[in-house]
Amino acid sequence: MSIKIPDSEHLEKVSIPDLFTALECSDKGLTSEQVKERLSQFGPNVLEEKKESTWKKLAKFFWSPIPWMIEIAIFLSILASDWNDAVIITFLLFFNALIGFWEEHKASNALDALKAGLALQARVLRDGKWSEIPAADLVPGDIIRIRLGDVVPADCKLLEGEYLSIDQAALTGESLPVNKKVGDVVYSGSIAKQGEMVAVASATAGNTFFGRTAKLVASAGATSHFQQAVMRIGDFLIILALVLCILLSFVLVHRNYLATHTFTTSSLLSMAKFVLILAIASIPVAMPAVLSVTMALGALVLSKHKAIVSRLQAIEEMAGVDILCSDKTGTLTKNQLTIAEPVVFGDATVDDIELVGALASRAENNDVIDNTVIASVKNKDLLKEYKYGKFTPFDPISKRTQSVVTEIKTGAEIWASKGAPQVIIDLAKLAGDELQKAQDTVDGFAKKGYRTLGVAKSLDKGQSWIFLGIIPLYDPPRDDSAATIAAAQDYGLSVKMVTGDDTAIAAQISSQLGMGTNIRPANAIFENVNADYIPDNVAAEIEHADGFARVFPEHKYGIVKALQNRGHLVAMTGDGVNDAPALKQADVGIAVSGATAAARAAAALVLTAPGLSVIIKAIDAARQIFERMMSYTIYRIAMTIDVMFFVVAAIIFYPHVPGVVGSFVPLTPVMIILLALLDDIPIMTIAYDNTRVSPKPVRWQMHRILTISTVLGIISVLQTLALYVYSMDNLGHTLWGIMLDPPHVQTMMFLQLVVGGHLLLFVTRQQKAFFSKPAPALSLFSALMLTQIFAALLCGIGSSWLSVPSLPWALIGFVWLYNLIWMVILDVVKLITYKVIDHMGHRAHK
């Protein structure tokens, strides 16, 4: 036996007899034998997840170019018996890996949250008897009973019963509970709010509407641009370091052989150790850690703005987002049904309509529409003047409610009714101009996307009815939505509405919020289109639309993917289960306040304050953080070029130094390690630096970054080499009160690189002149100055343990003055380079 399950999206079109035939079942239920066979074919009614071992997940973070280089460095350190270096480098390797592993672990919680939403128990007809079973044991073809408060356990087609009111907002985004009748479909995970009906289960587990959402969540996910950028920068620096290290190794080995005419293990290890330490200083061992700490501190700042970051890379992605896809219900709107100004008929007043509408409602039924109408009565004491009698709730057949009440003061009996306008119009037997006015009013509200209720009363026990008017209902925008969207647009974001509601409703809300009115029905766009393989013409249509209506989960996911394929960075806001796949696929998924657990688990940013205004604050903070990361990246590449090229050039240009056996190196291994520590550790305070906020989205422009950092790096090499040439030309002479010898030259070059490196950061921290506003943050400035004081004291006092001879304070002052002059030169070069890059960029766009 092999049963073909009808697709959930087309299930509405399948008749009940045809469904029974397809599922090989009947309204009598299944037998135990049939259930056993179907469980083996379809499996249990639970979401499956392919589990990957924790160790395998962790191992991935040790298998890429940067970890490989760090691992080689650890191996060589052990080989050279340099245990201190080995321990420090191993710590950095594991620190980076654990940060990445923790981020991925948190992101994988989305499926667990979806599983929590499934029904736990189900009432089922089997072997001719009704019984309650775990929902996991349901199979296609089971006959089930759905009652008030039940979570629907599978996708079902309703077979019998008067009606069922279903809340499926978390699945489809529809604002109000949907009334279902025989032949309609209800989806797994939705909630029964009123009524009771019998249904046949058509799909279970991963084949359900809910299950397809979970599959999309499992498959969704965009590669972080931060990870790509770090990899490209890492590759660039690694290749550069390898080439120079190979060249340096060849030169050192050749010179050693020329000097001794032999190779010894100790000399080879000594050379290998120097090249190794130089490579470690050049390879961006600490760069992922520094950038991660910068983002982590940024996440702390965002938390103060009521935005919780669950994926650190989202901060960097947020800075570059240029399209914000926003769910309507509960995100742009309040998800609170509200009454607009009623239209009155005859001698009735607005108060009359609202009072009679409230009398035709019951608060104890906890119906959304009833509660809204009751809440509209301004003077609630009026409701206490009536004694309530028989009440007939709304059902899909009569399409109205009816209540019999008695006015306590007069004893007059009043029949009150509200419901579908056409039903109430027919009940009151409107004709002529009144009928035309009523129809025009209903049509006018429908075009705006409003739902409407007709209200009437009878004073003769239902013999004749007086039509009082029409109550329009809508889900109003949040108070801050329009201002937030305007602010987003000022930040260079295009905001697109994405909703499960009808096109008219979406267009009305979109128009009110200044988002445009080109709303496209998603079911028409994605007809016969696979969300993973979207044609260019469809993607272009999505790109130019202002918003989307009648959206299913795979549509939202497809919309995000299409926009990403068009080169956009996409943020997606939402609060329901239906948003989870798109939230995870988006570059930045944003779960708004009050979002479901599934949405929060799939999102990278979780808002704890209502509305979207906090997103603008998050974008502002993200762009500041991005500028800080950019500053550090340019600085780090330039410094790597400076140190590597200087050391290699110095060794090549000065093959023989008086008093030195073999090749003279301009920095000792200890100095190189100190230089790496003094460069990177205080730089972490760049996370607190004051930066400008770009008015437009910002991205990793690798050509621009590598160009400016390479130019600054080359000029820095010239700066360092010039001082080295000056010191070597004065070797053996008295300079600044000391006889200049090779160890003093090494100390002077160490100080030069420390001072020049930190002044270089002040150059790279912004694209304008280094003295432009905003000024450096006190924390960054203080950290750099403390580092400079430490380096100056170390060089001024000296340390025999670190093999650092002391320098005269006048020479230290000269080095500082020398670097300040070069700082101005570097800044001028930077400004010219940016101008040339921008000019070439403008010409390329033309």
Concise summary:
The protein is an alpha+beta fold. It contains 30 helices and 26 strands.
Q: Which consecutive residue ranges, at least 5 long each, have pLDDT under 50?
A: 106-111
Radius of gyration: 36 Å
Task: State the distance separating the first and last CA atoms.
Answer: 64 Å
Strand-residue fraction? 5-15%
User: Globular, elongated, flat, extended or rod-shaped: what is the shape?
Assistant: elongated
The major sheet is characterized as: 8 strands, mixed
Q: Given the structure, what is the number of helices? A: 30
Average pLDDT figure: 82
Please provide the count of β strands.
26
Structural class: alpha+beta
For the biggest β-sheet, the strand order reads: 10-24-23-22-11-19-21-20
Q: Estimate percent helicity.
A: 40-55%
Give structural attributes.
single chain; 51% helix; 8-stranded mixed sheet; 30 helices; 7-stranded antiparallel sheet; 846 residues; alpha+beta; 14% strand
